[in-house]
Amino acid sequence: MSETRRKRGGRRGRQAGGGDGGGDAPAAPAYITRVIPEYELLGADGLALIEANADAILQETGINFNYPPALKLFQAAGATVDGERVRFPSGMCRQIIRDSAPAVFEQQSRNPARSVMIGGKHTVFAPVYGPPFIRDLDGGRRYATIEDFRNFVKLAYALPQLHHSGGTVCEPTDLPVNKRHFDMVYSHIKYSDKPFMGSVTHPDRAQDTVDMCRILFGESFVDENTVLINLINANSPLTFDETMLGAAEVYARHNQATVISPFILAGAMSPVTAAGTLAQILAEAMAGMAFTQLVRAGAPVVFGTFASSISMQSGAPTFGTPEPALVLNGAAALARRLGVPFRSGGALCASKVPDAQAAYESANTLLPSLTAGVHFVLHAAGWLEGGLVSSYEKLVMDADQLGMLAVFAGGFDLSGNGQAMDAIREVGPGAHFLGCDHTQRNFKTAFYRSAIADNNSFEQWQSEGAKDAVQRADVRCKQLLADYAPPPLDPGVDEALREFIDKRKASFADSSY
Question: For residue range 34-49, what is the model confidence (pLDDT) as tens digits?
Answer without folding.
Answer: 999 999 999 999 999 9
